[in-house]
Write a structure and sequence with these properties.
The complex is a heterodimer.
Chain A: E1 27-31, E2 39-45, E3 48-59, E4 72-79, H1 94-107, E5 119-129, H2 134-148, E6 158-165, E7 168-171, H3 175-180, E8 183-190, E9 195-199, H4 207-235, H5 237-248
Parallel strand pairs in A: 4-5
Antiparallel strand pairs in A: 1-2, 2-3, 3-5, 6-7, 6-8, 8-9
Helix pairs in contact in A: 1-2, 2-4
Chain B: E1 8-9, E2 16-17, E3 22-25, E4 29-30, E5 34-37, E6 40-43, E7 47-52, E8 55-60, E9 72-80, E10 84-88, E11 95-98, H1 99-102, E12 123-130, E13 138-140, E14 147-148, E15 153-156, H2 162-166, H3 171-180, E16 182-186, E17 191-196, H4 199-215, H5 221-237
Parallel strand pairs in B: 4-8, 11-13
Antiparallel strand pairs in B: 1-3, 2-7, 3-6, 5-6, 7-8, 9-10, 9-12, 10-11, 12-13, 12-14, 15-17, 16-17
Helix pairs in contact in B: 4-5
The chains are: A alpha+beta, B alpha+beta.
Chain lengths: 249, 238
Amino acid sequence: MENDKISLVTEDGLRVDGRKLDELRPVKIEVGVLANADGSAFIQQGKSKLLVAVYGPRELHPRHLALPDKALIRCRYHMAPFSVEERKSPAPSRREIELSKIIREALEPAILVDRFPRTSIDIFIEVLEADGGTRCAAVTAASVALAHAGIPMRDLVAACAVGKVDGKIVVDLCDAEDKYGEVDMPVAYMPNKKVVTLLQMDGILTREEFDEAFKKAISACEKIYEFQLNALKKHLSIIEEVKEEESNG
Amino acid sequence: MKGGVRLTIYVERRKIVFPGELLAEGKYASGANTYKEGDKIFSAVIGLAEIQNRVISVIAFKGYYVPKVGDIVIGVITDYSPTSWQVDINSPYTAILQVMDALPKPIDPAKEHVRKYFDIGDILLGEVIVFDKTRSPMLTTKGKGYGKLRGGHIVEISPTKVPRLIGRRGSMINMLKKELNCQIIVGQNGRIWFSAKSLEDEELFVKVIRKIDLEAPIPGLTQRVRQLIKEEKAKRRS
């Protein structure tokens, strides 16, 4: 096949988009982009763009779903019809339903759900442009949006994919690398707690390769965590500004 | 200190903290918006660290209202049944107001309709009498000044900022009442009812509330608010 001949990593170790093997794509996170949501965030990682809105804790409808001892987390991952090259049907696909579930499960250990029983926390993730790594970007942005909403959390959750492309372990795969590479392994991680909340793998790695990939994933998540903190700090900068004014005069 | 017990505070007072940030280690009590794992205390939200008598807590920047027995709240009627009303109290939990907690004597649902007393959209001042997270909070409107609120306006602020709006021993709220010459009722759930003499005063009041909502965590707020009122009043005169 033609595709098998595509070289994804050059001889001097550069990838299709010119990155080094363990280099992240540029990450931009913005907090509080939606006025009507309790918490919101926008993330751009390379060419992938996602918008996340968080509502809650709020009264749960339909009521019979309420859990007597904790909050119910509901999550919807959805790709906009224009997010991919060929129009995607707006109806939730099998893949989107699955991603909704795994994103919810990646965030659940971080949220102190027992603080507000019988309520719901609703997370809406809209993929505006998809270029690989959207589930990880979704987890990253959703945890920022949850923190912005003031929902008590154990820790933020940072996520990043690693994989194997042309026999090399690479970090933060783009769409082409995901499609034509050998392995894609998304990891979500709570940096302060040092707990992995999501680990999937598509492909085959040897034990040694897995160890290397996993180590790189953790350090990538730690870098992502810095972006999350900086985004939240930037959002609070208004407060800092007034504080400075105060100390100056 | 007993051997090996460490007592360390990792943050200074009023420092901005984030979820998962280690605040203290040792024999401290875990206060609001924090959680404990072993003898370590972590922040659960974005806010300002607060240390008071071995209690470590965080003042959240954003939050929701959790009802507490004895709280005075401002609610909006959203629904009714033959013997009770549903009241939105700006909380994840909808409150219930029963006829027996609202009226001096029980009514006969066959003869009288509860809408005669409170209708959907009515705004009321009440007190939380029952709440334990397993059941909906219950309100009462029996007592001093409780009941339907007529006239005036409602503004909302984040419930976490209500203590700042009231101020130490009511310093902020009393100053506002005096300076703006208006009636103010503050619900613990972040709703504020107010009624001023003139439109200008009302507009100024809303402006002040917005300022408090935004700048609550920064010290010296009462002074800044006083300054704002002074400036606005001077502007009006010129």
